[in-house]
Amino acid sequence: MDGPRFLTGQLLLAMPGMTDPRFERAVIAMCNHDEQGALGIGIGHHVAGITLHTLMRQLDLDPGVAPDAPLFMGGPVEQNRGFVVHSEDWEGEGSIDVAGLWRLTSTLDVLRAIGEGRGPRKWLAALGYAGWGAGQLDDELLSNGWFGVPGNDALLFEREVGHRWTAAFASGGIDVRLLSASSGHA
């Protein structure tokens, strides 16, 4: 493929000046990026007013021992659909391996397992996803809309949400204070 390399297993970071306000300071865990398109789960912003327990009760699931964690705004596509990005120590129906770094599951069995205390050790629950058609993300990368850094457990599961964007750029050797919202041409 000409142009940007595939980003599966990386964190995709919105550059300053991103024209779509839904992606301002976005941090997206890239779960698939190939010739057909791309899919990622936003992990940089929480959904206001809804938590895991609220969601589980709406789905008639017992929250059990699950912490009442905030849900993430996974992206603008299918916001009524849930996804769990989680550590590789658990696999269920329809779980997808993401570059040997984490898994993505969108079936209820992962929520049941979390509630019963037998789920993945680390996890994030999100509503919606970020999706791109064939070549769309590649074009956005070439126009400096996004920056990719290697994904890791610390950034994905441990870093405080309000600091993920800055910390992810720092992991790529970039101080966000030095970034400009506009670009020039040589």
From TrEMBL:
One of its GO terms (cellular component) is cytosol. InterPro entries: AlgH-like. Pfam families: DUF179 (PF02622). Belongs to the UPF0301 (AlgH) family. This is UPF0301 protein HZF05_19545.
